[in-house]
Each structure stands twice: as structure tokens, then as C-alpha cells.
Request: fold
Amino acid sequence: MNPLLTKFDTPFGSVPFDLIKEEHYLPAMNQGIELAKKEIEAIKQNAEGPTFQNTIVELEGIGEILSQATSVFFNLNSANTNDELQKLAREISPMLSAYGNDIMLDAELFARVKSVYGNKENFDLTEEDTMLLEKTYKGFVRNGALLSEDAKNKVRDIDAELSKLSLEFGEHNLAEAKKYKLVISNENDLEGMPEGVIEAASMTAKEKGDEGKWAFTLDYPSYGPFMTYCKNTDLRKELSFAMGTKSAKDDELDNREIVKRITILRHNRASLLGYASHSNFILEERMAGNPETVLNFLNDILTKARPAAVADLDELKAFALKLDNCELQSWDVAYYTEKLKKEKLNFDDEMLRPYFKIENVVDGVFQVANKLYGLTLEEKNLPTYHEETKVFEVKYENGEHVGLLYTDFFPRAGKRAGAWATSYRSQQIKGSENIRPHASIVCNFTKPTETRPSLLTFREVQTLFHEFGHALHTLLANTKYSELSGTSVFWDFVELPSQILENWTFEKECLDLFAVHYETGETIPEDLVNKLKSMLTFREGTNTLRQVALARLDMAWYSQDPSDVLDVEQFEIEVGKDTALMPHTNGTCVSTSFGHIFAGGYSSGYYSYKWAEVLDADAFEQFKKNGIFNREIATKFKDNILSRGGTKHPMELYKGFRGEEPSVDPLLRRGGLI
Reply:
């Protein structure tokens, strides 16, 4: 019996990971597609004239078995993959792409959708119904429903190739990170590194067959501390170059040709649909609306951030010269930044780490959810896909079931880099049943060692709060249709619920909930919190400039015809002239490992992180004025944003919470840029 082919008969309808085997996926996909096609045929063959209910609602509900199987498969292919899953993904992805096109390019089905859309005033539609109808109609049009048969076939071919290339891009990055290691034999080369970092490197070496030595990798919990604390500049240069040339080494894992091909295909697809560029196509369905708005937004921030970043760099250069007679290079920046921070602020990240034992931080973010939204989280003994994964039932204080939350925190072979939130099941209302969601947080945090627990950096604490914010957006959803539920919002709005929660990590009232020294039990001291707050403005010009640089690179690839780009590295150098402050290191590329825009969903959307910062800074001022745990303000945020998904235009949702459109000033004030 294939467990993916039936509705999960498990507690809460949770995924029966213990029963699912690799051989189940492909048959489930094939059968799921066949079942969905039969459901499509039933919609088309309905003798009644097209109505909202018999066409739009029925269409929204098709393919439950297929959705169930794809959700499990692709989540595991990101979080716990292996050679067999990757091989299956290469077969399954183009198959699903073809299935999606079969629906979107079906002229008979589109005729029914178009009929409902053209006669919408004749149906008694709610605001949410109208939004679903508009999203469905636009979905067909934006996927080629109005094209000629020849053009439709070209879209099919492009989508099939793109699905393969995006997978290949991510697989190359994963394989590159998996195979690389910097092994240190001489203990003197560890000078400057904290004890916990050294112990973790010893464990990594042991795992990789180099017992008695120390190994560092391209996983951020290893790479970040090495670049920050290793005194040996030659070794910093070596590791920095390995990271900077990821998938750009003229070997079988090189992504440069893939980058060029993906951008050309996306441009060609947009052209077929009548758009000037891929960015024009994407941004039509974003708050920003068009590339010009995005570029003006980025350039406006650039004018404020660049002078501050230049001043930051001049200060750091002078400091490195004074301290070590060092002519600053790019691989020296993190090292001397940490030294400068310690001298200028009497503060460094390692001072915080003992207060951030992972179990306490997780409990802390759960307490924040309780104080803001009345949520409780209780660990459950349910099947998971890996021994490090935990699952929690989320409830309101009155016992009402909200959903499930999976957590998976540590790096391992088979898990892609970074941190993300996802879901195994979306919230929706079917008849009288409110089907509750199953969310998941996947991260790559500092692992425990033989002598100490997992002690997080402050950035990792922020990351946990960030991803938990996404999870709350999924968990607190309360909409009728899954297509509009939770994080199914414009992509330049989706980061608001995540980024706003990071603000709590700077507040003593919040930190007191969980930031206790793992050995002494001492609560984090007030003076340390004040020093932490000083980090909000420390080198903020540099931090902002980096985000702007990445967003501008994204827009450069996608807001024009990229077919003239011959050399990826030279293209990046040209694009970065206004944002690059350090000399370029020959051979390095950003694009070849820029998974957000080539293997993820952020093409023409990386600006949304900065866009959402405007929203989160503006929104958090409401909490600062009224109390960071003010339940009334939190309820307003939940009712207008977290629970509403994509049922209204994001700006309308935001104004429902805030009462007015956001101002950029709170963000600039927070960063000390005005």
C-alpha cells in the first residue's frame, strides 16, 4: 500500500514519514496526475454553464493526492536529500511542469474560467471569492492561455527546461559544499578562534575522516566563525576563495552556463507573454508593480547607504593598518570588523553565545508567541524524517488546535544551506471543517559538541525568530481557500511577518524570557543588551549596501535581455560598480551560488527583503509605543495580516493594521542613516 495515495489516517493528518519509502514517490506522482486530470475533465464536461462554484472552486480543489505527495517529496529533497531523491527530482520536476502546463494551456478549461471572470458581476461573490477568481484568471493568462498553439508549445518547452536547470543549479551548490573541506593540522593555525569553534571543527574533521585534525566547511556555522576569528590571513583567503568560487570552477559543478541559460529562458518566456522583461512579468504581481519602482527604491536607499558604507570602510582600513599594518582585503573584512567592534563597543558576538543555548531560544520564541497570540506549543511523539527533527502541536490557550510545527535545526550532508520555512499542509475551510496547517522550520545552526550544548550566535537567534515568523503566517491562517492561505501573498509582502519578529530579539523584556547563561543561569545583563542594541547602527551602511548590491544584481539579470552576457563574472563587475567598495577577487562569482534567484522563487524579488524592512520597522513602532507584548496590537496584526493571507491587496491589509501607508523613516532611523 502506497501511503502517499490516501488521505493520511494519522494523528492531526500528519505525514507518516515512517511508512513512506523512496519507491512510493514516482507512482504517487503518476497516479496523482491521472486523478487530477480526471477531476479537470469533470469540470470541463459539466453540463451546467460555468459558475464560480462549479469551475473556480472545483479547480482550486483538484489534485489533493498530488499536492500531498509533492509537498512531502520536495521538502525532503531540500532538507534530507540523497542521490536517489535527486535522481527522482530530475524525473519528477519536468513531469509536474508538463502537468501544470496541461492545465494552464487547456483552451476548453480556460474558456470556462474566462466566462466566469467576464460575468463575475452576475455571481454573489465575497471579497475572498473575487480575489480567488482574479488570481485564477490571471494565472491562466500569465501562463500562456491567450497564446497561439505554437507559442503555447514554446512555453511548455521553456518550462520543462527551466525545471531541470533550477534543480541542477541547487544540486551543484549542495555537491560543492559537501565535497569541500579546509583541513588544519597545525594547532597554531587555530589562533584567535573561540574554544567552541575549535571543538566543532575537531568533530567535523572526525566525521570527514581526518581525526586528530580540524576541518572547516562552507556551511555557515563553520565558515562564518572561521572568517570572523581566524588570525591566519592566508587561511582566511583560502576559505573565502572557496566560498566565492562555489560552482564557478570550470568543472562538472560549474553553474555559469546554467545562470546564463536560466536568465535567457525566463526572458524569452516573458517576451512570448508580451512583457518587456522577466522583471516586468514578475513585478506585475508584486506590491512594487514594475522594475522602475524597484530600481528607484533601491537607488534611493543607495544614496543614503553608500556614504555611510564608505565611511565604514575607511574606518576599518585605518583600524587594520594601525592594528596589524594590514592593507585590508575582502577576506579580512569580517576579522577586522569583529576586532573593531570589540574595541569600539567593548563587545563581540562570542560574549552573547553562552546566553543562547538553543533549547532556551526555542522555548523563548514559543513564549513570545504565547504572549502575543496566546499560543502554546507541546512536543508530540509523531514520525519525522530525521532523528534531529521535532514536531509540536500548536494550540490556543483555550485548547483549540491551531496546527503542527516541525523543527530541524542542524547542518548535515543532504541538507541544502541556509534557513527556510515551508509547509506540509495549507490551511483551508471545506464545508464545516477548518483544515489546519502543518508548518516547518529548517535551519543550519551551530551544532552541539561533546562538551557543550548548541550555543547560537545572535544572528542565528535572529534567524530562528525570522523563520518562526513565517511559520506563524502559515499557522495562524484563517481563509476559505488554500490558494489564498498563509504565505500565499505577494512576495514583497511575505517577509513582513518574519522580519518584524526579529525586532523582539533586541528587547531586554523579550531576552529575559530565555537568554540565561548556560552554565551559571545568570540572565543576560542589561549592559550587554545595550551593547547589542548598538549593533543596530554599527556598520549599518555596509550591511545595507550589501543588500542593495544583491538586489540590483538580481534586477540586472532579469530587467533586460540577458542574451548579450558572455561572461558572468564580468557582468557582475559591471553591475556592481556603484556598490562595490573592495577590489574584485578574480575568479569569484555571486550568481553561481545565488540560489534565491536561480533555484528559489526570488527572481526579480530579492529587493523584497529591504522592502519588507520598511514595513517591519514602521509596524514595530506600534509595538514600541504600546508595549512589545501588547496583546491588543498583536491581535490587530494577526487579524489584519497573519490570518488574512492573500485575500486582499497587501497594502490594504497593512493599512488595516497600521491605519496608513508605511513610511521609510523608521527604517532609516533604526539604522542610524538619518
Remarks:
- The longest strand covers residues 401-408.
- The beta strands are 182-184, 214-216, 375-379, 390-396, 401-408, 420-425, 428-430, 433-435, 438-442.
- Residues 291-324 form the longest helix (34 residues).
- The chain has a mean pLDDT of 96.
